[in-house]
Amino acid sequence: MNVTGIGPKVDTSILSEGGRTSGMAAGPGSFADTLRQLAGPAADAGRVADQAVSSLAAGQPQELHTVELAMQKAEVQFQLLLNLRNKLVHAYQEIMQMQV
């Protein structure tokens, strides 16, 4: 079984010398791209699980444990993204409540 990480490490090259971000434009190492890279495998796992369930329901030769494994992989990746979203929303709300 091949186990891989959930995504690339944070790219610190987007910071300038003063510690401020070098711009708000979406570059190749932007935060939005990182989120898209994390969401891609979760969407792919969901599609694989849907195809496995569809083929099982259609009566095609499919092992039940393979279908269940695909469904669990999709669920775990979805839960990871959901928890990441919740953490990001919470961090945003905390920042917005800070007094300047």
Annotate the secondary structure layout.
Elements: H1 31-57, H2 64-97
Query: What's the total helix number?
Result: 2
Order of helices and strands: HH
What distance lies between the first and last C-alpha atoms, to the nearest angstrom? Answer: 50 Å
Given helix and strand content, the structural type is: mainly alpha
Shape: elongated
Beta strand count: 0
Low confidence ranges: 9-23
Radius of gyration: 19 Å
Q: Strand share of the residues?
A: under 5%
What share of residues is helical?
55-70%
Question: How can the largest sheet be summarized?
Answer: none
Number of self-contained structural domains: 1
Average per-residue pLDDT, rounded, comes to 79
Task: Summarize this structure briefly.
The chain is mostly helical and 100 residues long.
Textual characterization of the structure:
The protein has 100 residues and is mainly alpha-helical. The protein has one domain. Helices cover 61% and strands 0% of the residues. The protein has two helices and no strands. It has helices spanning 31-57, 64-97. It is elongated. The model is unreliable at 9-23 (pLDDT under 50).
List keywords for this structure.
mainly alpha
